[in-house]
Structure formats: C-alpha cells, structure tokens
From TrEMBL:
Residues 253-351 form the DUF6570 domain. This is ATP-dependent DNA helicase PIF1. Residues 160-198 have a biased composition (Basic and acidic residues). InterPro entries: DUF6570, STPR. Pfam families: DUF6570 (PF20209), STPRs (PF21107). Transmembrane segments: none annotated. Residues 160-210 are annotated as: Disordered. Residues 96-166 form the STPR domain. It comes from the Eukaryota. It comes from Paramuricea clavata (Red gorgonian).
C-alpha cells in the first residue's frame, strides 16, 4: 500500500484492487480509503487486520518526490555515462580494440541498411551537431582538435600502401572536380578569395617567424641524416631551389654585380646564338677587403663598355639589370652559400640599380662600323687536334675580347681613356691587383666567379 497527501486529506492506495472489506477483488478499486489524520488510518488498518485475522501491522513513512521527465532522463544518461567511463578505465587494450571493432561493424551495418532519406537526415543532424560543437569550442580546444586531426591523417597516410595512396588521390581529385563543376560563380569567387588569404597568411607567418626558431645552415646540416635521406644535392627541393636561383639571374651584368671574383676570358658567339669561351680564364681580385664584406658592386666599377651602332635601335638586352632580382640573389647566396655567408648587402649600391633597365655609369662608345672586332689579336683556339674543324669553335665576326689590367704605372692612361669615353667627371679606377688570383691557393674560386653555376658553393 502507499499513501499520497493532497490538500488536507490522505489517500490510501493498494497495488491490488480490493472490495469494501479490504479483500483482494478484481472488480474492486485501488483507492482503499480517504482519511484526514493518522488516527483514522490506524483504525482502518486495525479493522482490516481483524477481518484478515492478522494481529500485526506496521505503518512505514514514505517520501514521494515529483520529478520531471527530462530531469529523470538526464539522470539516466549521466548514470550511463558514469558506468561507461568506469568500464573504459578498467578495460585493457585488447578489450578496447574488440569494442571499437564491434562498434564500427555495427555502425557500418546500420548505415548500409538505411534509406536515402534516413541517410540525408542523419548527415544533416551530424553536420549541425559538428557546427554547434565547433562554435562553442575555445581557441585552445580548436588547436588541440586540429593537432590531433593532423597527427591522425599523417599516421594514416604513413601506413597506407602505394595502391591505397593512388586510390585516395584519385578520389580526392574526382571529388574536387565534381565540387568545382557544381559551384556557382559566387562560391567560386569565395573559394578563390579564401585561397588567396590563406597563402597570404602563410607567407606572413613565415616572415614573422622568430629568428631563434629558424635553423641556421650548420644546425640544419647536423640534423640532416644523409644515410636515411640521401645527399642534400639529391633532394628534389634542393634541385628545384638551385634551379630556380640559377634562372632568376639571366643577364650577364646581374651576375657580375653579385660575383666575388671577376674573370677575364675570351668569349665568342656560336652561329646558333649560344655563347662559349676558349683559352684560359684569369681572375683578378678587386679591393678584396671591401668586396669580402659588401655586395653588389657599383655599375661604374664593372669592366664593361657598351658599343652602340649609330643610326640603329640599341636595346642592350644583355646589359639589363633588375634591382629586385639582384637583391633576391644576394639574399639567397648569403643564406645558402657558405662563401657568401659573411657578406653584407650594400644598400647604396643596390639602390643605384634600375628596376628594369640599363644601369647608369657604364661606359658607352658609338661606332659607324657594323662589327667591332680586334683585328690585331688572333683567337686562342687551344691545342691542335686530329680534326682541324674542331679547333674552329668561334665566329670571328662575333668575337668579344677583354684585356688584362697591368701595373700601377698604367692607371693614369686608363683613367684618361675612361673619362674621355664616359664624358663624366673624373672618377678613380677600381683598385686592381697586378697578379692574378692563384686558383690552387684560393679555395672554391670558380664558385665565387660564377655564382649562378655554383649557387650552393659546391
């Protein structure tokens, strides 16, 4: 039996229907009696015990609490979560794997049996749940989630076979094509704008990276495992980087501006337009102390004379200089070439260079002749061979000659010639040593003379 209080009365309930005498009766009622105080209840129970021939009875107080259905459900959910957490804490790795496998199989089986409408509803609910959950997460929680996702993807991709990788890439490619084919013009513009902002943020993040987090060359080489990764020169990123640098400096004057040693050599032009050289190559140091600490050179210090033909359009494509390319090349060499690591960029000399044009200060001379050649000098064709035609590797009409600077006693005459040609105020000739650089005593001389051929100093 149970009691319920309402207003000023108590109601006695029984789990079995009873008649007026208190005996179980299927046609009776569950509400046994209504009374106002405990004394009436005792009298009723006493009369009932006499009818049932029972001498003992006990009144037990019971507290009834009214609970809402939602609160009751929430309590049940919490109890289930508590039981689940407790079970997860005591399970071993084998039990965990078995549980996850069963859950995965059950999920797959259930999803394979669902209809299209049910699937759409499930995916819609899942998407809304994910969006709501991500909108409520903090920045730290978001970083942790992205970090875990990145590690999971890396681990999964490291374990996949070549065939699985090809299948994944094929699916990604098809999915990307399908999405882009279905997107509208507005969504396409939004996607392109997001890609642009993402690239911009990556570049800004790379530039703003603290200096102490950037590995220098020696630390990087110490961390590089040659036996595991192969030589640096074999890496695709190294080849691409060096190839990109070599192509960035495409004009002769640009390479002369960033070279630490200036070679003097005989250059010829093949009938097809390609350049070559014959004979020996001599390197002369110019103001070694200054050049060892400062680049680029000033254009006026280059041993270059521009020969212009009267009455013709002179484009001077070969003497074009692009200031930004020279700056980029020097920065790359300082960071990647050990022979340039201690050099400083001369900002005054760099600012004197044009954005894209012929630098000022180069000596210029005009001629009426179509071709300027040195008729008094025979080209050095090298040692004779069995095939005489092999010795003729140049075109007389396209031969370019240079000179070997002599001692200090000739500088006055040279300065006079230079001032006459340039028609500018007299300026001091760059200090040039009398003796050529000994290539057997100077280490890596060729890399300093031709930085675009040996950008990494090797």
């Amino acid at each position: 039996m149970a009691l319920m209080k309402q207003a000023d009365f108590f109601y006695l309930f029984d789990s079995h229907a009873r008649d007026s005498n208190g005996m179980p009766d299927p046609n009776g009622t569950a509400v046994v009696m209504k009374f106002a105080n405990i004394l009436e209840l005792e009298q009723y129970l006493y009369s009932l015990s006499m009818s049932l021939h029972a001498n003992l009875f006990e009144i037990v107080p019971v507290r009834l609490n009214i609970c809402k259905a939602s609160e009751q459900k929430s309590k049940c959910v919490k109890d289930q979560e508590y039981v689940l957490k407790k079970r997860l804490l005591i399970e071993n790795e084998g039990d965990k794997q078995a549980r996850l496998k069963k859950a995965s199989e059950y999920k797959k089986r259930k999803q394979s049996e669902e209809t299209d409408s049910v699937r759409q509803i499930r995916l819609q609910k899942l998407s809304e749940s994910i969006k709501q959950k991500r909108s409520e997460e903090t920045d730290s929680e978001r970083q942790i989630r992205l970090q875990k996702l990145s590690e999971f993807i890396k681990q999964k991709r490291s374990e996949e076979t070549d065939s699985e990788k090809q299948i994944r890439l094929q699916k990604d490619c098809e999915s990307k094509k399908r999405k882009r084919a279905e997107e509208t013009d507005t969504s396409r513009q939004v996607r392109l704008e997001k890609d642009r902002l993402n690239k911009k943020q990556k570049r800004a993040k790379k530039v703003s990276q603290p200096q102490h987090e950037i590995l220098n060359q020696q630390d990087y080489l110490n961390m590089f495992d040659r036996t595991k990764n192969g030589g640096i020169e074999e890496q695709c990123w190294a080849k691409a980087n060096i190839n990109k640098f070599s192509k960035s400096v495409q004009y002769i004057i640009e390479e002369m501006l960033i070279a630490r040693a200036l070679p003097i050599m005989r250059v010829y032009i093949n009938p097809g337009g390609q350049r070559g050289f014959s004979g020996h190559c001599i390197n002369l140091p110019q103001n070694v102390k200054e050049l060892a600490m400062s680049l680029p050179r000033y254009p006026k210090d280059l041993a270059v004379i521009i020969v212009k033909a009267k009455g013709r359009e002179n484009t001077f494509r070969d003497v074009t200089v692009r200031k930004q390319k020279v700056d980029n090349a020097l920065v790359w060499l300082i960071n990647n070439n050990p022979h340039y690591s201690e050099l400083l960029i001369n900002q005054d000399a760099l600012n004197s260079l044009p954005e894209n044009g012929v630098p000022p200060g180069l000596m210029t001379v005009e001629t009426d002749d179509d071709i300027v050649s040195d008729d008094n000098c025979s080209p050095d064709v090298g040692p004779p061979t069995d095939n005489p035609s092999e010795d003729i590797v140049y075109n007389d009409s396209t031969e370019m000659s240079s000179f070997l600077p002599v001692g200090e006693q000739q500088q006055t005459e040279i300065e006079a010639v230079r001032n006459q040609l340039s028609e500018n105020e007299p300026m001091p000739w760059p200090s040039v040593e009398n003796e050529p650089i000994n290539e057997y005593q100077i280490s890596h001389l060729a890399t300093m003379a031709f930085p675009t051929l040996f950008p990494d100093g090797k």
